[in-house]
Amino acid sequence: MDRTDRASRLIAAPPATVYGALLDRESLEVWLPPDGMRGRIERWDPRTGGGFRMVLTYLDPTDSPGKTSDATDVVDVGFAELVPPERVVQRAVFEAEDPSYAGTMTMTWHLTAVGEGTEVAVTATDVPPGINQAVHEAGIASSLANLASYVEEAG
Hints:
There is one protein chain. This protein has helices at about 15-20, 25-30, 135-155, and strands spanning about 5-10, 35-45, 50-60, 70-85, 85-95, 105-115, 115-125. By secondary structure, it is an alpha+beta fold. A hairpin with a 5-residue loop joins strand 2 and strand 3.
């Protein structure tokens, strides 16, 4: 598993605001699920070595069966590194019987101040082969668009 998926977006909010949204339970439930999904966090421990468990539910699972069940993706995420307000490194493991979704994917969120905003670059490494690259990158881009809307409207 040496595949890397990427997406980035310029967000009209300072790095500290964006970083805060990456480590706030209620915020994550709102913006992290990509279009077509909703999310619920079952466990929350926002510190290095901590993490969270998120249940993502497809609003219409007809064309996108879930990894965990027909309608859900369940992912356990650990916080490997927290560097405010510059970087969040997560280790994600999907709950799935299909071995093509097995393994630990690392998601690195880099925040760089650009003028009055923040360039958010997401790099996913060791992406399980069962995850379609184009769909995954579109999902990350969708989450980034949701993040932008969330923090820009709050600001």
